[in-house]
Write a structure and sequence with these properties.
Arc Repressor Mutant, subunit A, 2 domains, D-Maltodextrin-Binding Protein, domain 2, 42% helix, 10 helices
Length: 295
């Protein structure tokens, strides 16, 4: 790839993004005539019209849309390589806006003081919410998403797969008996998860044992969009619940909770970080490294 071709691609991408030769020229600090010339050179090079020009607006042709999508990824990779070299010499700094659930934030609390001390030039702003956040349109650097990521133009980076099991307190099991098969769950009080992952109240639990997979209808009068509150309730004997293994481990070791149906588990729960682009500055990469280490 010649330097001229790379420059022309970069100019075309800016025009495609701005839908304007004038705005692209301002963004690139180039005269409008130079912007137009470079796009024309690129069209001659590929032998196709990439843009439809009128006196009022600039639109992409179908070929231009496909070409822009490919060029954008190419330019992001080039910029990412450049950013990695720059960030190797500079500490993460600036303002980082993160959207996540309260429960997820609580899992990071113990390490945040150390993280903040290690990166004093980085300001972290957390917005705790259970709704689905779009980092691109809502001006977030990172949105933590529990479950399979939405089908969108966002970049999804998997942070972890979380094991999920059925738990209850010893007191509840002493008073109501211990389920021996997944079907037994239907006769028990269950504390349900409600709208934590935008899927409504989980009245059906899916459990797997090797290649075996069953779906069980469960019932309960309590539902919450907070894993932390569900855990507190079953510690008090409210019933059975599906909970991440990681937040129950200490309770199980201390005898406060018991894993029931030991051979059965819910499907692994993936956790993703959603960003508006694959091009992540040092502040975002450093934060996500910290999150992965704490998960």
């Amino acid at each position: 790839m010649t330097p001229d071709l790379l420059r022309n691609i970069a100019v075309f991408a800016e025009v495609a993004k701005a839908k304007s030769f004038t705005k692209a020229g301002l963004a690139l600090d180039l005269p409008k005539s130079t912007v137009s010339r470079r796009v024309a050179e690129l069209e001659r090079e590929v032998g196709l019209r990439l843009l439809k020009r009128t006196t009022q607006k600039v639109e992409l042709t179908e070929e231009g849309q496909n070409y822009f999508a490919s060029c954008r990824r190419l330019l992001e990779d080039v910029q990412s390589a450049h950013e990695e070299l720059i960030s190797a010499r500079h500490r993460p700094r600036g303002h980082l806006r993160v959207a996540a659930t309260v429960d997820f934030g609580l899992r990071l609390v113990n390490g945040l003081t150390r993280f903040a001390a290690e990166y004093p030039d980085l300001v972290l702003e957390f917005d705790f919410t259970t709704r689905r956040v779009d980092p691109l349109t809502e001006n977030y650097d990172v949105a933590i998403h529990i479950g399979a990521p939405p089908d969108s133009g966002l970049t999804a980076k998997k942070l972890a797969d979380v094991a999920v099991h059925v738990y209850a307190s010893p007191d509840y099991l002493a008073g109501h008996g211990r389920p021996l098969t997944p079907a037994d769950l239907s006769a028990h009080a269950c504390v349900l998860e409600g709208r934590l992952h935008q899927i409504g109240i989980q009245n059906t639990w899916t459990l797997t044992n090797g290649r075996r997979r069953v779906e069980v209808d469960v019932k309960g009068t309590l539902s919450f969009n907070s894993i932390g509150i569900i855990r507190r309730l079953i510690l008090g004997g409210a019933g059975l619940a599906l909970l991440p293994e990681s937040i129950c481990r200490k309770d199980v070791e201390a005898g406060r909770l018991v894993r029931v149906l030991e051979n059965w588990s819910a499907p692994m729960l993936p956790i993703y970080a959603l960003t508006s682009t694959r091009l992540m500055p040092a502040k975002t990469r450093t934060f996500l490294d910290f999150v992965q280490a704490n998960l």
